[in-house]
Amino acid sequence: MSVEIESASSLDGARRAELFTSAYEGYLLPFRIDEKQLAGMDAAFDIDVDASRIASRDGELVGLGNLGVRGEDAWIGGVGVVPAARRSGVGEALMLALHEQARARGVRNVWLEVISENAGAVALYEKLGYRMVRDVDVWSLPAKDKPATAREVPVDKAQARLRELRTGREPWQRADETVANYDDVHGLETDAGTAVYRQFGKHVQLLQIAGEPEALLSALRRLGRVSVVNLPENDAASSVLRALGGNVVVRQHEMLLELH
Q1: Which of 19, 73, 232, 239 lies in the 20 to 30 Å Cα band around 6?
Q2: Spatial separation of the C-alpha atoms in residues 148 and 150, rounded to whole Å
């Protein structure tokens, strides 16, 4: 049974969000997404909807793949297949179609993250030529009201200092280009470090942090539960998060394909 691949722009936002949710049913980290949330992801992560792809069989939608594009770099912002069509080549067909779209846009490097326990997906990506770059963790730190010495600063000041202090590349979801796409970012600094974050009620989304992290994390957890996505396992903040009682929600492999 052949797979038909076409642009994700052939679907409206609501149908695309419904397919996204269906494609991750029963996944190791399942989630539900609605049209508004999907539009927010598209904007924040520079998802090229025209370059992104959907798959169908006999007129039924069976999978999708999202492609973010920033110059010579691209990011696989989720590839999923509905349960009934899994392990039948749909995922590979979507990946190859995304690579074709990336090449057509002058992309040289394609990045993705995959949950470390997802052996099938890891094997597919390695088959397609991806190599492991590093392990990254999704962290959660419970809220706790304790004295803290960090101070609020303008975002542009915090970001300028971050660029001076950071020692490694930020993952796509927390890159400078992603931060620039948000209009609700706050800056925080101490004499020894700086951070930028977003806040949603009692939830704090840490976007970037550099320098000495302990005082910054202590200040952020006063605002609510702190989460950070894809923090490299050897980042200085990782050991501090653990010491403060944080836990790793999931570990992912960051992988890279260099297009030729």
Answers
A1: 73
A2: 6
Triad 55, 57, 63: Cα angle to 5°: 30
CB atoms within 10 A of CB 83: 12
Query: Do the domains 4-107 and 138-252 sit in the same CATH topology, yes or no?
Result: yes
pTM greater than the 0.85 cutoff: yes
**C-alpha angle 36/41/44, rounded to 5°?**
125
The residue among 242, 213, 246 whose CA lies nearest residue 143 is 246
State whether residue 162 is helix, strand or coil: helix
**Residue 46 bridge partners (DSSP):** none
C-alpha separations of 104 from 50, 67, 74, 186, 229 in Å: 12, 13, 12, 37, 30
Tens digit of each residue's pLDDT (9 = 90 or more) over 123-176 = 999 999 999 999 999 999 999 998 888 999 999 999 999 999 999 999 999 999
Residue 54, both tokens = 């959907």
Task: Please state which architecture CATH assigns to domain 138-252.
Answer: 3-Layer(aba) Sandwich (3.40)
What architecture does CATH give domain 4-107? Answer: 3-Layer(aba) Sandwich (3.40)
CB 210 within 8 A of CB 113: no
Q: Which two tokens stand for residue 30?
A: 């399942």
